[in-house]
Amino acid sequence: MIIPARYNGPPRTGNGGWCSGLFSSTVDGPAATVTLRRPPPLETELTVVRKDGRTDILNGQHVVAQAMPAEPPGGLVEPVPLAEAVAASPSYPGFTDHPFPTCYVCGPDRAEGDGLRIFPGVLPDGRTAAPWQVPADVDERTMWAALDCPGGWAVLGPGRPYVLGRMTAHVERAAAPGTDCVVMGQVLAREGRKATVRSAVYAADGAPLARSEATWIAI
Fold it and tell me: What is the dihedral of CA 96, 101, 107, 110, to 10 degrees?
């Protein structure tokens, strides 16, 4: 198992959502929980070890991540219409202060057709909303990636970087290539350096496609 360099989050390490989607493919079930133990390395051969109902992803002797079957997250972030997500996106905080501007999912420095370029603006009630034009090569890993950063930006702010620690996600179906979707994020709780967030991907007609609940850690 190798994480291609294209799918970075912070420089030289993998995007947490895309990598979690990759790691989730090693377990069976309606959903999966992936815990990131250390930053996933890029362009490095990782070893998959299955035991006791879970999968360990190893870089040499070091555990990078653990994946386990799970039940789908119980809640959904209430969606907004596509037009409202489009209107919110220009206020994306990452345009002016981004800890990882080349992130595959939300990095403004990624070119069209390379990164996902999901730019979530913050709504008056604290939820985030972003339009997303689905790429031609969309798959389940892409859906996990799309769920990742919009939840994080519900707690991220200037001088306050967070990274993904754990993610439970359920993909009902992949979005259709070339279509416009709405991606939502919402913070559920904060405790010390940890924040619990929820995110969801909706088709333009409002049909839910994927959902997640995640723990983000302040760094």
Answer: 120
